[in-house]
């Protein structure tokens, strides 16, 4: 038998399979996805590789074929279906097969198992008392202490003994040798979810919820595994619908993956699922320890859990009988990977579901244009929830023109209208959320005399001003002390232009000293359980006002929040990104949706310097379809997704001249192979950030209505790069339908 193996080296010239003989004693132990060690290269160095196929015969002279050395020690294999998914990702998004395999390989190696140890008394009470008397006479106090406890209880936790009694492992071994006790060891899985068992609260579904559940269940019973878009306004009960769909899948012995856009949403989401599915729920995210991640994968493989919840990487949970993938807040940009292969979780989830024979449910109050356009074309099935689950009214939204505030002498980031409403809610003991799309102080230093801006010496971006006298580059981490004199003109009038969450928090504390204030952004959520602490404190009404970035406006449910203030609503409108209006609309709708989810009606105040923009006007009316129609006209006119497909080619090199030359030749080649007259090329041009960590960047964009045409061009460009040595010092990445501008 021969195995086709991908070598664990990320290099275009090695992006193919190599054939190796399978030793007789390994034939039964290898499978597609197994990790092995093989001799590779002229010196036969042992390299790790992955089995991606088998054959009875080899393509070369059998005498020259090398044999697999062994299985890679402590490695974890990849499921065969995930290997197929990796091959699809490599073709669909570019990159090498090894990069794709590592993406779908959530756990790379075995971790030491966690043991639960119990000390068990093996002698009778009568004999134990004799030993106790002996230890006391010999003044062996630690042994006597341990035996006294064991005489009261036959079994005692080993950790409790060492922590509370001060008994060492040596003392335990001494009594074990005398056959007075034994230490019993049991391997237990680390479980990051503190579940107390399932207990389903009675839920009364609205007619719309019942209809969505009925359609899904009837399709599932007929083995019609489809992709659905659950389009429901904020507070319409999408999560309850997901859970009923998952219950349908679990009842026939299959499992479900629930994707959420970011870790901040894990806490509330998991608690709701635990109430229904108990300890059959687990989580997967980057905050878990290596041991916790390994154990969750093993629990998934062994069938110990039914539901896995987590951000993008949870999509690759190795369930044997996957029946459903739910993608909540499917419009979020975080579902697109920024690492090669730059896959989108939505398309990848649909492909995994196709391979596994499963269904996909996409959920959002503000669907991506791609998803809603898919419903219009009939690619996805549309399920609508137009009313809130508890029949509450949608929040009343008002838009404040901050230009008028400035004319009236108000230079504060808080408008007079919002200030008055905050005072009102504090008096009523109701809660407030203030959303700002920036973190920390994160302002930049500029000279008021000459306009000089302090920039990073390694990246083409300004340094961000942080409290404590530090200037930091958020791309490469470069840091230096704040300066007091302009290095360009010598003026002392150099200072920070800042409007971040930290500044807003300080302003709110100063203006409303009677209020308890919490801040939630990247800086306050670095520790492992910081999300849960902040969210649970706010849910328990330990604070009146929660100030935060995007993470506070997505998916959270706080019934006592009756006012949401959106500060600098149009900040995201001025990004050099064709999705800026879509992103702004979604954020504003999500923010307004946090208000009035309890019994008291809610209100949202959107502060803007550009209130007449259609994304702000339609968001204030919560009118998604009006926004969709307006935005789709713009996309169609410009040939942007989803009207057409866009392939971005990012080129990176430390040699600027070489990069210019390489980008020029790549464009010439792309034009030659992409002979379709509908294929449009833009660039090459420098991205908004032209240099990061001393590496120069160029981007080339290709547009076409047919995705397959772009894939064909990508494949030819990959071959061109492989045979031309000039590209060896230029790193090239492909990004299909990018969600973030380079």
From TrEMBL:
Q: Could you tell me what reaction this enzyme catalyses?
A: Couples ATP hydrolysis with the unwinding of duplex DNA by translocating in the 3'-5' direction; ATP + H2O = ADP + phosphate + H(+)
Residue ranges of every copy of the Helicase C-terminal domain listed in the record: 478-635
| Residues that coordinate or bind Zn(2+) 2 | 456, 459, 473, 476
Q: How is the cofactor bound?
A: Binds 2 zinc ions per subunit.
Q: So where does Zn(2+) 1 get bound?
A: 447, 450, 486, 489
As recorded in UniProt, its EC number(s) are 5.6.2.4
Do you know which Pfam families this protein is assigned to? DEAD, Helicase_C, PriA_3primeBD, PriA_C, Zn_ribbon_PriA
Q: Does the keyword Aminoacyl-tRNA synthetase apply?
A: no
- Domain of life, per UniProt, equals Bacteria
SUPFAM superfamilies documented for this protein: P-loop containing nucleoside triphosphate hydrolases
Which top EC class is named for this enzyme in its record? isomerase
| Gene Ontology annotations of biological process type | DNA recombination; DNA replication initiation; DNA replication, synthesis of primer; double-strand break repair
Cellular component terms per the entry's GO annotation: primosome complex
Q: Which NCBIfam families match?
A: priA (TIGR00595)
The record describes the protein's role as:
Initiates the restart of stalled replication forks, which reloads the replicative helicase on sites other than the origin of replication. Recognizes and binds to abandoned replication forks and remodels them to uncover a helicase loading site. Promotes assembly of the primosome at these replication forks.
Q: Give the similarity note.
A: Belongs to the helicase family. PriA subfamily.
Q: How does it assemble?
A: Component of the replication restart primosome.
What's this protein's name? Replication restart protein PriA
The source organism is: Sellimonas intestinalis
């Amino acid at each position: 038998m021969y195995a086709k193996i991908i070598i664990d080296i990320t290099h275009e010239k090695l992006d193919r399979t190599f054939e190796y003989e399978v030793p007789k004693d390994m034939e039964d132990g290898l499978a597609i996805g197994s990790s092995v060690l093989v001799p590779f290269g002229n010196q036969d160095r042992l390299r790790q590789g992955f089995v991606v196929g088998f054959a009875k015969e080899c393509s070369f002279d059998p005498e020259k074929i090398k044999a697999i050395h062994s299985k890679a020690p402590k490695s974890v294999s990849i499921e065969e279906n995930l290997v197929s998914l990796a091959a699809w990702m490599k073709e669909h998004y570019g990159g090498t097969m090894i990069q794709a395999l590592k993406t779908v390989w959530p756990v790379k190696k075995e971790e030491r198992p966690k043991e639960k140890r119990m000390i068990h008394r093996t002698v009778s009470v009568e004999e134990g008392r004799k030993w106790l008397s002996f230890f006391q006479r010999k003044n062996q106090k630690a042994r006597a202490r341990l035996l006294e406890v064991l005489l009261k209880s036959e079994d005692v936790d080993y950790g409790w003994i060492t922590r509370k009694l001060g008994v060492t492992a040596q003392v335990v071994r001494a009594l074990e040798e005398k056959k007075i006790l034994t230490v019993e060891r049991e391997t237990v899985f680390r479980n990051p979810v503190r579940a107390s068992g399932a207990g389903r609260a009675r839920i009364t579904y609205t007619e719309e919820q019942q209809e969505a559940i009925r359609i899904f269940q009837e399709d599932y019973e007929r083995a019609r595994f489809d992709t659905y878009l659950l389009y429901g306004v904020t507070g319409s009960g999408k999560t309850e619908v997901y859970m009923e769909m998952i219950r349908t899948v679990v009842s026939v012995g299959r499992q479900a993956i629930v994707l959420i856009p970011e870790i901040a949403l894990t806490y509330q989401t998991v608690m709701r699922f635990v109430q229904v599915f108990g300890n059959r729920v687990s989580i997967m995210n980057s905050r878990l320890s290596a041991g916790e991640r390994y154990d969750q994968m093993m629990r998934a493989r062994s069938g110990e859990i039914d539901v896995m919840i987590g951000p993008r990487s949870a999509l690759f949970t190795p369930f044997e009988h996957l029946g459903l993938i739910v993608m909540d807040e499917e419009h979020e940009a975080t579902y697109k990977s920024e690492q090669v292969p730059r896959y989108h979780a939505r398309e990848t989830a649909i492909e995994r579901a196709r391979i596994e024979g499963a269904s996909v449910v996409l959920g959002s109050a503000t669907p991506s244009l791609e998803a809603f356009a898919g419903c219009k074309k009939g690619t996805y099935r549309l399920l609508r929830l137009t009313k809130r689950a508890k029949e509450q009214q949608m929040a009343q939204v008002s838009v404040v023109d901050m230009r008028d505030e400035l004319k009236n002498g108000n230079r504060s980031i808080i408008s007079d209208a919002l200030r008055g409403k905050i005072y009102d809610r504090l008096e009523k003991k109701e809660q407030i959320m203030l959303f700002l799309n920036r973190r920390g102080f994160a302002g930049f230093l500029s000279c008021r005399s000459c306009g000089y801006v302090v920039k990073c010496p390694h990246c083409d971006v300004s340094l961000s001003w942080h409290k404590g006298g530090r200037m930091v580059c958020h791309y490469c981490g470069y840091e230096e002390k704040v300066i007091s004199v302009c290095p360009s003109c010598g003026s002392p009038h150099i200072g920070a232009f800042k409007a971040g969450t930290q500044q807003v928090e300080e302003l709110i504390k100063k203006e409303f000293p009677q209020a308890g204030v919490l801040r939630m952004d990247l800086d306050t959520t670095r520790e492992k359980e910081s999300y849960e602490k902040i969210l649970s404190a706010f849910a328990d009404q330990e604070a009146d006002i929660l100030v935060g970035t995007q993470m506070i406006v997505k998916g959270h449910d706080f019934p006592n929040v009756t006012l949401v203030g959106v500060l600098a609503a149009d900040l995201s409108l001025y990004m050099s990104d064709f999705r800026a209006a879509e992103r702004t609309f979604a954020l504003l709708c999500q923010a307004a949706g946090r208000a009035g989810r309890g019994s008291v009606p809610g209100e949202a105040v959107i502060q803007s310097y550009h209130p007449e923009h259609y994304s702000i006007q339609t968001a204030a009316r919560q009118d998604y379809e009006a926004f969709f129609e307006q935005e789709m006209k713009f996309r169609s006119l410009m040939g942007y997704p989803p009207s057409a497909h866009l392939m971005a080619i990012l080129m990176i090199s430390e040699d600027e001249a070489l990069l210019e030359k390489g980008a020029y030749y790549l464009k010439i080649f792309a034009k030659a192979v992409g002979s379709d007259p509908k294929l449009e090329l833009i660039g090459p041009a420098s991205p908004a950030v032209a240099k990061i960590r001393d590496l120069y960047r160029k981007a080339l964009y290709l547009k076409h209505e047919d995705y397959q045409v772009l894939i064909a061009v990508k494949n030819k460009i990959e071959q061109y790069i492989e045979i031309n040595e000039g590209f060896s010092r230029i790193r090239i990445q492909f990004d299909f339908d990018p969600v973030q501008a380079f």
